Amino acid sequence: MTITTAQDVIDRAPLGAIIRFSDGTPQPPARFKRKLSAWKDRNGTGSLTEKRCARDGRPGDFKLHLGDWGTDDVIIMSINRLYTADSPGTFTIERVPQAGEALVLSPFMGGDELVHIAANEAEAQSWLRAHGYPNARIEIVADTLDMADAA
Q1: pLDDT class of 148 with cuts at 50, 70, 90
Q2: How does the average pLDDT of the chain come out, rounded?
Q3: Are 151 and 1 spatial neighbours (Cβ–Cβ below 8 Å)?
Q4: Which residue range(s) make up the domain with 61?
Q5: Does residue 21 fall inside a structural domain?
Q6: If we measure between CA atoms, which residue out of 150, 111, 146 comes closest to residue 137?
Q7: Residue 117: inside a domain, yes or no?
Q8: Residue 148 domain flag
Q9: Among 53, 55, 82, 126, which is 20 to 30 Å from 33 by CA?
Q10: How far is Cα 112 from Cα 150, in angstroms, rounded to an integer?
């Protein structure tokens, strides 16, 4: 489902959704390594981990988690990108959290930040014990967003 603006992501996409972002340019051939690398930086997917509505004269924004660098269970660096409501480009919801999945949410700057998605509540509790977010809470996805409803 295509969402035409970043503001639509803030208004309609649930935390945990996989969002594809694009600047609308065609992908360059693989032989142009630098151009391809730059294109991949502007066109990709991420998990929606945080969103905030407009406040204090500033536009709303949302954060996509693009990936982690590290080995095994040791994360050295977490890659995130912040988009404001007026960010250019197009956005597509590729997947939304399914009913029964458990979202682990941690309070952050007056809102919630998604720190993990588990298949069920028991897995979420196990993950929380292993990773120690003291103020986090688990929220079970009650209903799956119908992709047609989000359009």
Answers
A1: very low
A2: 91
A3: yes
A4: 2-140
A5: yes
A6: 111
A7: yes
A8: no
A9: 82
A10: 21
Q: How many domains does the chain have?
A: 1
Distance CA 59, CA 148 (A): 26
Helix, strand, coil percent values for the chain (each to nearest 5)? 20, 45, 40
8 A C-beta contact, residue 138 and residue 103: yes
Q: How many CB atoms lie within 10 A of CB 116?
A: 19
As a whole number of angstroms, the distance between CA 120 and CA 124 comes to 6
d(CA 116, CA 136) in angstroms, rounded, equals 10
Cα 44 to chain center, whole Å?
12
Q: Which two tokens stand for residue 14?
A: 């649930």
Q: What is the pLDDT of residues 18-52, one digit of tens each?
A: 999 999 999 999 999 999 999 999 999 999 999 99
Does the residue 145 lie in any domain?
A: no
